[in-house]
Design goal:
With 42 residues, this protein is of the alpha+beta class. A two-stranded antiparallel ribbon has the order 1-2. Strand 1 and strand 2 form a beta hairpin.
Length: 42
């Protein structure tokens, strides 16, 4: 996404995304349930 794409930014922000840096990295935080991540040593 281009950082000046105001329509996309508004859409992502309205869904709860936040600005994660200088380049308008909008992200959602998702939890990982215990025991469901990659195996140790992977």
């Amino acid at each position: 996404m281009e950082p000046d794409d105001e329509a996309a930014l508004a859409t992502y922000r309205s869904a709860g995304a936040t600005d994660d840096g200088r380049f308008a990295m909008l992200t959602w935080e998702f939890g990982i349930a215990p025991g469901t991540g990659p195996p140790s040593g992977a």
